[in-house]
Amino acid sequence: MFKKLKPDQMVESVCDIKLDELMRRGISNIIIDLDNTLIPWGEENIIPEVYQWIKAGQEMGFKFCIVSNGSFKRIRHFASKFGMLAASKRGKPLSRAFKNAMMTLEGNKHNTAVIGDQIFTDILGGNMLDLYTILVEPISKKEFIGTRIMRFFEKTIAKRRRP
């Protein structure tokens, strides 16, 4: 079970993800979380460096699809601002959310990665479908109460995995 909670890669920010390395892996589709991955939770401002990273990826040929447990209105709003797709099904970490995003991207498990800030939603969901998973540090300490509770369990799990 703990293997499904382990990301393939861990970075500080999406901006630290080397897009050329993902391309070399054959990845051209990215399922990405919204809150505390692309933007601070509950805020409306887009971080310029994150916007530039997305635009650089799009210029390289990457397709992005937001999958979030937030409101679909909010997801569509930011998908439009970033110029990316949005999956209509939510419910991470359930497989249907990620399968719907892959279908939206016209991707498959060999050419799709998942990027997010939470182990129990983003990483678990991606790993259940054998997708390449990347865990980023949350942009902000401000979070939904349920997420704060899950962070406690994430820290417990992370300690168990240390040698």
Task: Kindly describe this structure.
- The protein is of the alpha/beta class and 163 residues long.
- The chain has 6 helices and 6 strands.
- It has helices spanning 19-24, 48-60, 72-82, 95-105, 119-128, 145-161, and strands spanning 9-11, 29-32, 63-66, 85-86, 112-116, 132-136.
- A 6-stranded parallel beta sheet has the order 1-6-5-2-3-4, sandwiched between helices.
What are the segments in which pLDDT stays under 50 over at least 5 consecutive residues?
A: none
**For the terminal residues, how far apart are their CA atoms?**
17 Å
- The ordered H/E elements are EHEHEHEHEHEH
Measured by DSSP, the beta-strand proportion falls in 5-15%
Radius of gyration: 14 Å
Main sheet characteristics = 6 strands, parallel
* Approximate helicity band: 40-55%
Q: Total helix count?
A: 6
Mean pLDDT: 88
Give the overall shape.
globular
In terms of structural class, how would the helical and strand content be classed?
A: alpha/beta
Number of E strands: 6
**Major sheet: order of its strands?**
1-6-5-2-3-4
Question: What is the gist of this entry?
Answer:
The chain is an alpha/beta fold.
What brief labels describe this structure?
6-stranded parallel beta sheet, 6 strands, 163 residues, alpha/beta
SSE topology sketch:
Elements: E1 9-11, H1 19-24, E2 29-32, H2 48-60, E3 63-66, H3 72-82, E4 85-86, H4 95-105, E5 112-116, H5 119-128, E6 132-136, H6 145-161
Parallel strand pairs: 1-6, 2-3, 2-5, 3-4, 5-6
